[in-house]
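pls design
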């Protein structure tokens, strides 16, 4: 949690105008419990929103100048609103700019503004810092300028388009959805094909949800991500010759099992095997949760990691080491990578009375093998994007 008055002070230091108070918005990050690399394949996912996220202090400037700064990055920008649609090399400002550009494309005028972003979510760790910047921007626009025609689901789709078209990552809809629709103490069971969803109570009782950060930078992650998207499309074209399908999410594991030899390339077959088996694991995980069987839920998390490691090949040495070290600890019933992979974070289900030992021993085991110290966070499942009615004092 960041201190509201501290944020306000930093805003005034940067932009001045103390007689004209800004508004404050917050969008969480997310952790995905199971259902990885299934969203852009029309499959199932099961994420939840976190207590960490991105704060946005914002005020219309009464001019054509758009100023954006962040407490997390040195780079800031000051541009004319006429240049919103121009990408700024590789900087973080492309996430909010992409969102503003989408509003312009929808016929909504965007005036000049002063915007200060501040995040307490680790960047580039696979906890959706990007989706949280996008969604906090999108939500703030609707609140500030009464763009009432946009439902939350519209903002989710708009932010996904911003990332696909402006930033250039062909991500699915999971992150923006979890950030927008998150509910305290619930995980969101989403069908990414139909966008039907159900909020399922995720009551941990004797267990804690602990996120482990490998602190390995996710280099080249975006291009490898896009490569997986293409591989899945290729798998569809092979399978489509006998069974009509437009996405891998259209077929069950039993159906795939029978026709998998139609994919001549072993690598492409493995990619499809992951996606289709992961979809089944999400269904099983949700039903085990509804039965109160957390042990089964944990076992499915472990199986998910194995498939992401062996079939989808998006884990890598650091994520595998952190998961292996975690699973050696008594009281850990599930451990897997979460998010896109290629570095980033793991998510672990740990018995409450084992959490301390888990953090100590897993850190030691991981550091011994990788030379990197991991970081752990206790996840609190929280609500989605919102305005914080700040009592600036
Ligand atoms: C990233 C993407 C999501 C999803 C996950 C993998 O977080 O933004 O759309 O594909 O990777 O499950």
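designed seq:
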């Amino acid at each position: 949690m960041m201190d509201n008055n501290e944020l306000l002070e930093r805003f005034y230091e940067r932009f001045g105008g103390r007689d004209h108070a800004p508004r404050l918005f917050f969008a969480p990050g997310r952790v995905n419990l199971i259902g990885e690399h299934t969203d852009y394949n029309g499959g199932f996912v099961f994420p939840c929103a976190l207590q960490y996220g991105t704060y946005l202090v914002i005020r219309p400037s009464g001019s054509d100048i758009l100023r954006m700064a962040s407490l997390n990055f040195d780079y800031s920008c000051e541009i004319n609103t006429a240049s919103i649609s121009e990408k700024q090399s590789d900087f973080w400002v492309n996430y909010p700019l992409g969102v503003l550009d989408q509003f312009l494309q929808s016929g909504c005028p965007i005036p000049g503004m002063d915007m200060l972003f501040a995040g307490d979510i680790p960047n580039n760790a696979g906890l959706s810092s990007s989706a949280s910047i996008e969604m906090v921007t999108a939500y703030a626009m609707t609140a500030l300028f009464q763009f009432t025609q946009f439902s939350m689901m519209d903002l989710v789709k708009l932010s996904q388009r911003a990332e696909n078209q402006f930033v250039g990552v062909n991500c699915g809809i999971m992150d923006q959805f979890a950030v927008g629709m998150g509910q305290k103490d619930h995980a969101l069971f989403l069908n990414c094909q139909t966008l039907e969803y159900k909020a399922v109570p995720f009551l941990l009782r004797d267990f804690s949800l602990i996120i482990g950060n490998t602190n390995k930078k996710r280099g080249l992650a975006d291009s490898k991500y896009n490569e997986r998207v293409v591989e899945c499309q290729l798998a569809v074209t092979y399978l489509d010759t006998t069974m009509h399908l437009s996405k891998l999410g259209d077929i069950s594991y039993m159906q795939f099992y029978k026709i998998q030899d139609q994919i001549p390339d072993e690598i492409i077959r493995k990619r499809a095997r992951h996606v289709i088996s992961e979809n089944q694991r999400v269904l099983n995980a949700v039903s085990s949760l509804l039965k109160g069987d957390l042990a089964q839920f944990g076992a499915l998390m472990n199986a998910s990691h194995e498939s992401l490691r062996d079939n989808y090949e998006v884990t890598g040495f650091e994520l595998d080491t952190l998961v292996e070290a975690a699973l050696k600890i008594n009281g850990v019933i599930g451990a897997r990578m979460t998010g896109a992979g290629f570095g980033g974070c793991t998510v672990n289900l740990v018995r409450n009375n084992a959490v301390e030992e888990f953090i100590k021993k897993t850190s030691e085991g991981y550091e011994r093998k990788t030379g990197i110290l991991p970081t752990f966070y206790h996840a609190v499942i929280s609500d989605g994007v919102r305005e914080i009615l700040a009592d600036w004092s």
